[in-house]
Design brief:
About 60% of the residues lie in helices and about 15% in strands. By secondary structure, it is of the alpha+beta class. A hairpin with a 5-residue loop joins strand 3 (about 195-205) and strand 4 (about 210-220).
């Protein structure tokens, strides 16, 4: 192959390179509009070097076509120098990008770790909440609109059996009392600012038996500590109430007996020492035979 053939091949390769450089300049200018301010300066230098290559390729072709070979070595040296600077700038940009990626990756990993810890805490809190809520004590959460938001099995087993199948039943339908639909309503009192309301309630259970409960009502708060309803717990005091009623009846019976004895003591003269009684003729008679 003669020298003229290699000459034509080199010109053709440079022309292809010139086309690639034009496309590269367009892409670089688009990227320059999207990067942040810190990266924009570095990317502007890279774009300038690409334009320098474009000018060098153009100058090389011009000198070739004009047969000005004495300047070719200078142009080639400038292009090589620009190539070295271009590689240096790209390597610096890659290094900064990798550092940024490592920093972002570490931050993302830390965030994921915090999210995992928070998720575990939420799961533990949910498990604790479920354990408390599903206890043997009837519990009921009621919203501001008097609708039951949630209740446990103990509540429906004793109090809410009439409305368990109803979607979001009203509290005054599920467990009505004398405090419903007036100013004594626990929900109304909580919404007015009270932090706890304790009241008694008598209710017939699923078997028709009368039950007595102490109802403790407290605010139900959202994440912003705003009152969005109430939480009610129902303590069954039926046996204690029956025992107290029996005690009162026994005390009343004893008081009546004492009163009757006092009345009899006033009618019959009784000896304080021998406990004999005296009849109308003045004789002392023994009550024990």
């Amino acid at each position: 192959m003669n020298t003229h053939y290699f000459h034509n091949i080199s010109i053709l390769l440079v022309m292809f390179g010139l086309c690639f450089m034009v496309v590269s300049v367009k892409i670089s200018l688009k990227i320059n509009k999207t990067v942040n301010q810190e990266t924009k300066r570095k990317w502007s230098l890279i774009t300038s070097l690409i334009i320098l290559f474009l000018l060098g390729y153009s100058a090389f072709l011009y000198l070739q076509f004009q047969s000005l070979e004495k300047y070719l070595e200078l142009i080639i040296g400038i292009v090589f120098l620009g190539g070295a600077l271009f590689v240096l700038m790209v390597m610096g940009l890659i290094q900064n990008t990798l550092l940024l990626m490592n920093t972002s990756s570490q931050a993302l990993e830390n965030e994921m770790q915090e999210h995992k810890l928070l998720s575990n805490k939420l799961k533990q809190s949910q498990a604790t909440m479920d354990s408390i809520f599903n206890s043997a004590i009837p519990l009921c959460i009621t919203g501001k609109d008097f609708e039951i938001i949630q209740a446990n099995k103990a509540f429906y087993g004793i109090l809410g059996h009439l409305t368990q199948s109803v979607d979001r039943p009203k509290c005054f339908e599920s467990h009505p009392s004398d405090d419903c639909n007036n100013d004594s309503c626990p929900l109304t009192r909580i919404l007015k600012g009270e932090t706890e309301v304790v009241s008694d309630m008598i209710k017939h259970d699923i078997n028709g038996q009368e039950k007595t409960f102490i109802v403790t009502t407290r605010p139900f708060l959202n994440a912003q500590k705003e009152v969005i309803g109430i939480v009610e717990s129902f303590q069954d005091i039926t046996e204690r109430k029956l025992a107290e009623d029996a005690k009162v009846d026994l005390i009343n019976e004893l008081q009546n007996t004492v009163e009757e004895v006092n009345i009899l003591s006033g009618l019959l003269p009784i000896c304080a020492s021998c406990k004999n009684i005296r009849d109308d003729k003045g004789y002392w008679l023994s009550l024990i035979h």
